[in-house]
Amino acid sequence: MQKGIIHFGVGDSMDTYMYIKSSTKAVASNGKPFLTLILSDKTGEIEAKLWDVSEDDERNFSGEKTVKVLGDVQNFRGRSQLKIRNIRLTTEQDGVTPADLIQTAPLSQDEMMGKITQYIFEMKNPNIQRITRHLLKKYQSDFLTFPAATKNHHEFYSGLAYHVVSMLDLAKGITALYPTLDKDLLYAGIILHDLGKVKELSGPVSTVYTTEGNLLGHITIMVNEIGKAADELNIHTEEIMILQHLVLSHHGKAEWGSAKPPLVREAEVLHYIDNLDAKINMMNRALEKAKPGEFTEKVFALENRSFYKPTFSE
Amino acid sequence: MQKGIIHFGVGDSMDTYMYIKSSTKAVASNGKPFLTLILSDKTGEIEAKLWDVSEDDERNFSGEKTVKVLGDVQNFRGRSQLKIRNIRLTTEQDGVTPADLIQTAPLSQDEMMGKITQYIFEMKNPNIQRITRHLLKKYQSDFLTFPAATKNHHEFYSGLAYHVVSMLDLAKGITALYPTLDKDLLYAGIILHDLGKVKELSGPVSTVYTTEGNLLGHITIMVNEIGKAADELNIHTEEIMILQHLVLSHHGKAEWGSAKPPLVREAEVLHYIDNLDAKINMMNRALEKAKPGEFTEKVFALENRSFYKPTFSE
Amino acid sequence: MQKGIIHFGVGDSMDTYMYIKSSTKAVASNGKPFLTLILSDKTGEIEAKLWDVSEDDERNFSGEKTVKVLGDVQNFRGRSQLKIRNIRLTTEQDGVTPADLIQTAPLSQDEMMGKITQYIFEMKNPNIQRITRHLLKKYQSDFLTFPAATKNHHEFYSGLAYHVVSMLDLAKGITALYPTLDKDLLYAGIILHDLGKVKELSGPVSTVYTTEGNLLGHITIMVNEIGKAADELNIHTEEIMILQHLVLSHHGKAEWGSAKPPLVREAEVLHYIDNLDAKINMMNRALEKAKPGEFTEKVFALENRSFYKPTFSE
Amino acid sequence: MQKGIIHFGVGDSMDTYMYIKSSTKAVASNGKPFLTLILSDKTGEIEAKLWDVSEDDERNFSGEKTVKVLGDVQNFRGRSQLKIRNIRLTTEQDGVTPADLIQTAPLSQDEMMGKITQYIFEMKNPNIQRITRHLLKKYQSDFLTFPAATKNHHEFYSGLAYHVVSMLDLAKGITALYPTLDKDLLYAGIILHDLGKVKELSGPVSTVYTTEGNLLGHITIMVNEIGKAADELNIHTEEIMILQHLVLSHHGKAEWGSAKPPLVREAEVLHYIDNLDAKINMMNRALEKAKPGEFTEKVFALENRSFYKPTFSE
Amino acid sequence: MQKGIIHFGVGDSMDTYMYIKSSTKAVASNGKPFLTLILSDKTGEIEAKLWDVSEDDERNFSGEKTVKVLGDVQNFRGRSQLKIRNIRLTTEQDGVTPADLIQTAPLSQDEMMGKITQYIFEMKNPNIQRITRHLLKKYQSDFLTFPAATKNHHEFYSGLAYHVVSMLDLAKGITALYPTLDKDLLYAGIILHDLGKVKELSGPVSTVYTTEGNLLGHITIMVNEIGKAADELNIHTEEIMILQHLVLSHHGKAEWGSAKPPLVREAEVLHYIDNLDAKINMMNRALEKAKPGEFTEKVFALENRSFYKPTFSE
Amino acid sequence: MQKGIIHFGVGDSMDTYMYIKSSTKAVASNGKPFLTLILSDKTGEIEAKLWDVSEDDERNFSGEKTVKVLGDVQNFRGRSQLKIRNIRLTTEQDGVTPADLIQTAPLSQDEMMGKITQYIFEMKNPNIQRITRHLLKKYQSDFLTFPAATKNHHEFYSGLAYHVVSMLDLAKGITALYPTLDKDLLYAGIILHDLGKVKELSGPVSTVYTTEGNLLGHITIMVNEIGKAADELNIHTEEIMILQHLVLSHHGKAEWGSAKPPLVREAEVLHYIDNLDAKINMMNRALEKAKPGEFTEKVFALENRSFYKPTFSE
C-alpha cells in the first residue's frame, strides 16, 4: 500500500495516487492560467499548483478525478504545497478507485448507524424518541455520507455521522458523572443538531453551500423540520419546543448564529460537547503532522493558534 | 374630558382616572411591602409607588384594573413618578371603562385592516400574495390587537398592526423612488416580519413573554409558520425561502438576533424601514413631553440618548 | 454605440474604448514592472493588468487618458479582471472624448441644481434658508462635479450632487408620513452634510484625499464653514448650532467619525436617509451584474456581503 | 432534622438554625444602620436584612456565628430575601455547631484525597508525578478545606478539592475516548490549576481576596510555585515549562486572565473541563430551586441567563 | 484653622464649615423628600444626605451656600457619606466666605498666567505664537477660573489652567529628551486643547454642560475658534490646520470623541501628556485618602480600579 | 563611508555593503524558488527579493552574512523594496565586518551600564536595590546586547538596554514633577520590566521567539525570576510582591498580556512611560524617512497610521 499524504514533509518527493477534491482556475501574475488543486487520499490532503495549463489540462484535472502525481513538497507561507512535476489521469490498469483515496470516517456506516440506533433505543421519553427516529430515518442516507462541514473539522466522507457518534459517546460519559442531566434530551439534541446540514451542503464530496444553506442555514432548516415532523407525528407536547431550542441554540451565542443562547441545561451541555469534539479533532490532525519539540501549522478555526508538541510526547 | 397623563409635569397634582397596566409587590428598605404600579391612560403612562400596602391593597390594585388616583408628580432619578395620596377602584358610578383609558393605535382596526388588504391586493406575484393572505388570516384577530413589543416602541393596544401599516406606507414611498425594488416581496416581508409576536407575547395588555417566546423567539416562530403555510398551500417555489429569509434577517445582524444578515436587497430595505419607523416613533414620544430648549428624558432603546428640542421648534 | 463594460462577463472578449481612471505601477513576482489600470466607461469599470511594461507604456498609460483596448475578461479571486492583449491611446480619428466615457450622474447639473433650488425655495425658516443658500453658492461649481466618495458609492462625476438630490426626494416622502419632522432643518442638513467633500477630496476625477481631508475630514471642515458663514451673514441664532450638529453627527456614531451622536430628531433621520440611499445604490449596482439565481460579488462597504438575486426577479 | 434553606420559597416562614457567613453594616435611606447577613446551612444560603440595629446587634451578628432565626421569605428584585422577625445567638442548649450548618463538599476530605492520590499514583511520567505530589503535599491541608471561589461556583467548604475531583473524573472519561491525550499531563494540570487559590483567598469560610490575590492572582502564584518546586526537586526538564503553561493558560484567553492562550493540546482540554464542570455545577444549583415549567433566577456567571426547567423533567 | 474634609474617616464626627457644591432633591422609599448634598472645603468633598426635609430646608440648602454642619461619617457602599445631625447657614458672625472653602488650584491665577506667558514667549514660530496668544487672551478670564471637567479630574476652581500648566511642565521635560519634537507646536496644542471648555461648561462652580457643550463639544468648538482666529489675524498657512488637528485628535480615538486619530507626532504626544497628567492627578487624590497597606476607593475614570498603597510607602 | 540605507528612496540605485538579518525561502507563482532578504546597515533596513535562486544562492545568502549588493529601490504596495541586480558575499578584501553594518543603540554598552548603575545607586530602599542589582547582574551580558523586540520598536542590537535607559531618563523628569511617586520602585520596575526578554528571545541578532517565550512569555518569566531572586537573597518583604506586580501589569490590560492591570500608582506610570518611549521611537523612525508635506509609510504597531510631517518642520 502506498505511503499516505500525511507522511510527506517539506523536501520530500511524491509519486502517488491521489483524488482531486477540487480544482480552481486562476490567472498567474505572468498572465497565464493555472490550476489550484486540492489533492487527497485517506490520510489527508495537500494543495498543489499546476502552472501554465492548457485547455486539455483544465478539462482533465477538474474536480472528482483520480490521478497519479509526481512532485515535490515545498513550503508556501508556512504551509505545505505540492509542486507538480507530472500528473496524469488513472486508467483501469492502475487498479485504483475513488473509494481507495477518499478520506472517510474511521467507522463504517453500518457501525455508526448501529451505535446511533442503540442510543435511540435507550430513550425512555416516547415523544423524544419518535421525533428523533422519524427525522433520522427521513434523511438517513445523506446523514451517513455527508461531511460535517466544508472545512475546519470532520470535513470528510461520513464526517457528519462520525461527529455525532463521537458526541454521543462523550455524552454517555458526562451523563454518568452528572446524573441530573436528561439523557434522552441530550442524545436527541446531539443526533438532530447538525442534521440540517444535509440541506445546507451540496453533497458528500466537493462540498459547497446551497442557496438554501446561504439564506437560511442548517439551524433554521432543522428547527423547521422538527416542527413539520411534530405535525406529521401529531405530537404537540413541550418536547418539540425544547428540541427546537436545543438545535436553535447549539452555536452558543447570537454572534455565532444562535438567535437564542442555551436556556435549557442540556442545550448548554450540547453546545459544550459539540465544541469539545470539534476542537480535539482539529488539534489531533494538526499535531499528527508535527514532530515532538515543534509547533504545528496555524489552525484557523482555533483562533489561528499553533500548538506545541512537547518533546516528551510519545 | 380629563387632562391626559402626558400633560402633567413634576410639581403638578393629579386627580384622574387611570388604568393599572401592571402591579409589582416588593419590600421597602424599612421592611414594609409596597406596590410599583404602571398607571396609564390614552396619552401615556406614569410609574407610581403605593407605600405600606395591606393585603387588601395588594388584591385591589393588582394589574388590569380601573382606578381613581389622587397624587403628586415628583422627580425620581430624572424620571417622573407619581406619589399617591389616595387611590380607589372605580365603580359603575364613575362611568369609566378600560377602553376609555388604554392607549391604542391612532387608527381603528378596520382602517388598518383595510389598508393592509389593499397592499396585498396590489401584489402581482400570486405565490407571495397567497402566503401573505393565508398567514394574516390565520392570526388576524391577535395581529390587530397585540402590541409590537413589551416596551420601547409601539407597546400599545394594536401597536403591532399600526407599526406594519406605517412601514407599508414608508415602503410605498421608497419603492416609488427606487423602482428596481420588488414591491410584492417588500410588502409581504413587512406584513409577516413581526407576525410571530402573536405567539412570542402573551396578549394585548399586561404583555409579557411566553415560554415559547423566550426559547424560540418571534423570528424562528414565523419562519416555521411560513414553512407550514407553504405545505398547506402546496407552494414549493423559491418565494417561500426568500420570504423566510426576509423574516429571518430583519434584525440585521447576528448579535441582534438574525442568524443570517440580509442577503436579498428587499431584506436589507425591510430592516431599514423597520428601524426608521421604530426610531421616529420613539423620538416623537420622548419629544412630545419636552419643551423647546430642553432635552428629553433618556431613551433607553436609542442608546440611552437624550434628544434636544430646538428653541425654534413649533 | 459600443456595448458598455457592465455587459461583459468572464470569458468575453472586449474591443472597446475606455478611460483610464487610475494607473499604478508595481513589480511582479518575476521582478518585472506592470501596471494596474482602472478602466471605465459610462456603465462601469473594470480592473486590468498590463504586464512587462516599458517606460513608454508607463508614460502613455498613466491616469486620465482615453484608450482603445483589446482583451479578455477573466476571473481573479472572485472578481472580473481584464487581461489586456492590446492597448493604444486614442487619436482624433477615433472621435472619442473623455466626456463620452466618464461615468456621471443620470441627471444633468442643471436638473440637479433646479431641484435643489426648489427645495431651498420652499424653506420657511429664513436663517436656515440663508445659510444653506450662501454655502451652496460658495461651493456650487465643485459641488456639482465632485463624486460623493473615492469608492463604495456615488463615486462618479457629479455623484455628490446626485446623492443629495436622491436624499432630498426621500426626505420629502418621509416628512409627508411623519409631519412632526422639521422639513427646513432636514433639507438643509441634507444639502450641507457632505459639502465639505469639496475640500476633503482632490477633484471630480482620479479623486484622492487632500491633506486637509486626511487631517480634519469633511465633517470638521463643514462645521467650520457653517460657523464662518454665520459670521459673514451675521446670524447668531440657535439654527447655526443645530445645523452644525446635524453635519457633525451625520455618521451616527463616534467610531464612524461623528464626535457626537445625533441628539436632534432631524439629525437621526438625516443619518438614516444618508445610509439608506447609499446602501440601495450599492446593492443596485452589484445586482445589475448578477443574473437571477446568482449571488453578487462581495460588496466591501456592506460588510462584505454577497446578495442573492431571486430566480423570480424580473 | 430541620428543613434546609433551599426548600423554602417566597411566602414561607422560617424558624431555623443558620450560620452567618458574612455580615455587612450599612445605612438605610431613613438614616438608620442595618445589617445585610448572608445566612447559610448545608443546603444553601439566603440574604437577610436586619433593620435598625443596635450596637449590641452589630457585635452579636457579625460573621461566623451560629444563630436561630425566625422570619419570612420575600421577593426582592427577583431574588429571595429573608425578612427577620427574630434572631438570637445559639447557646449550648441548642446543641448546634457550625459544622452542622456550613455547606461542604458531598465527599469527605479523606475520600477526595484518596481519589486524587490514586490519580497521581497512576501517572507514568516521574517528573510530572513528583512535581504534582510535592506541591499537593505542601498545600494539602488548605487545599482540602478552601472553597474554589468566593462566589459563582464551588464556593463552599472543600469546594476547591471537590472541583478538582470532579474534573479528574471527567478527564478520565474523555481520555478514554481520545487516546492521544497525555493523561499524566492532563491529570497534573487539573490538580495544580487552581492550587494557587490557597494563597489568593483568605481561608475556608468568609472568604475574601488577599492582597497577594489582588495584585498577582492564583495563576501567577502557582506558576511561580511550580518553578520553585522544580528547583527544590532539581527537575529541569521540559515538563516544568509545560505544566507552568497549563496553569498559565487555563482561563483560555488573555481577557479572562491567561496571558497565553492554550498552546498545548492538554491545556485546551483542561480549560474545557474546568468550564464544563463549573457550568454544570452552577446550572444544577439554580435548577434545584426551580419547579418544572419555570425559569430559574438569573445566573450572573452564566451571562446572566435564566434557565428553563422543562415540564417533562422529573 | 479647621481640619479638612479629607482628614475625616468612617466613624469620625465632623463639626465643620462647608460649601454646598450641589443639592439634589429626591424622594426616599418611605415617600418623604430628602436632599443629596455635595459638601466641600479646600481639601476635598463628601456626599451627605439630609432626610425628611421641609420646604424651608430645600430653599436654604440649595447649591452654592456656606454652611456649618454637625454629623457622622459613615460607610455607604464602599464610599464615605456624611450623616447630618445638624446643619445651618453661616452668618456674618462665622466669618467664613465661600473663598475659604472652595477647592482651587495650588497655584494662584497670576502664577499660572505667568508660567503660560513664558511658554508662549519662548515660541519661535510667529504664526503659532500669534494664534495661541490671541485665543488665550480672548478667553483668559474664564480660562483662569473654570474647572477642567465636571468630575473625574481637575474638577476644581482654576482646574483647567492648572491642568494646562502641569502639562506644559511635562512637555518641557519630554522635549528635552526627544529633541526632534516641535516644542512650539506641542506647547500651543497644550494651551488650546481644552480651551473650548469655557463654552462647553457653564462656569467655575456647580458646573454642568451647556447646550452647545452637549451638541458640539469642546473639541468642535475650539477647532472652529482656531479657524475664526486665523481669519481675524489673516494667517492662512499650514500651522492653522495642524493646530486644528492637534485639538481635534487629542482624545486619541474616534470612540473617545476624536473624529481623527493623532496623525502628527506632536498630536500623539499631546494626547499622551494629557492622559498622564489626568491619571496621576486622579491616583494621587485617591491615594491621599488611603493608609499604607490599604486599597483606595474605586476610581471610576480609571476603569473602576482600586489602587494599593504599599506598606513601605512613606 | 558609504551612504546609509535610510537615505535611498524609490528610483535610486544602491551599490552598498549590507548585512543579511534574515533570509526566507518561498516559491513564486511561476513555481520557482526565491529568497526574501531583510538587508540592513546601521541606518536602517530594506526588504529585497532574490528571484530564481539556485541551491548555492540559498546556502550563500542565508541569514547573518555580510554582502555587497547592487540593485534598484522600487515601490511595492506602498513600501520600499530593493530589486537586486547583483549580490555577492564579502571577502577579506572588502574590509567590512558585521559590526560595521549592524544597527545598534546610539549609546555604548558602557555608557548605558553606567547610567543604569547610577540609577540603582540612588535607590534608598535596600530591598528594592538588592533585588534589582542581583537580577541585572545575573543577566547583564544578554541585557546589554539583546533587542527590545523582534520588530516594531527598539529591534536593534542593544535595543533592550537603550529602551530602559530612555525610560529611566523620562522617569527622572516625571518624578521631579510629581514628587509623591516612589522613585525607587519606578526605577526598579523600569529596569526589570522587559528583562525576561533575554529568555523570551533567541539572541541579539536574527531574533526569533524561543519555545519558552511562546509558552510563557517574558512577563511570566520575569515574575518567576523575581520570586527566585527573593529566595536567594532571603528577602521576604512586600517589596517583592510589588515588584512582581509592576512587571506583571506593565502591558496595562489583560487583553495586552497583563493578567492584572496596574493597581499600584508606579505600575500605571511605568506602563505609560513604556508606551510613550516606544511610540516616540516608532514615529521618529517613520518620520525620518518622510519629507516635509508628506505622510509616512503606515506604521503597523501604531494602529497602522501614517503620520504627516508638516511643511514647516525643520
UniProtKB/TrEMBL annotation, chains A, B, C, D, E, F:
<keyword id="KW-0378">Hydrolase</keyword>
<dbReference type="InterPro" id="IPR012340">
    <property type="entry name" value="NA-bd_OB-fold"/>
</dbReference>
<dbReference type="InterPro" id="IPR004365">
    <property type="entry name" value="NA-bd_OB_tRNA"/>
</dbReference>
<dbReference type="Pfam" id="PF01336">
    <property type="entry name" value="tRNA_anti-codon"/>
</dbReference>
<dbReference type="GO" id="GO:0016787">
    <property type="term" value="F:hydrolase activity"/>
</dbReference>
<dbReference type="InterPro" id="IPR050798">
    <property type="entry name" value="YhaM_exoribonuc/phosphodiest"/>
</dbReference>
<dbReference type="InterPro" id="IPR003607">
    <property type="entry name" value="HD/PDEase_dom"/>
</dbReference>
<dbReference type="InterPro" id="IPR006674">
    <property type="entry name" value="HD_domain"/>
</dbReference>
<feature type="domain" description="HD/PDEase">
    <location>
        <begin position="156"/>
        <end position="288"/>
    </location>
</feature>
<protein>
    <submittedName>
        <fullName>3'-5' exoribonuclease</fullName>
        <ecNumber>3.1.-.-</ecNumber>
    </submittedName>
</protein>
<dbReference type="Pfam" id="PF01966">
    <property type="entry name" value="HD"/>
</dbReference>
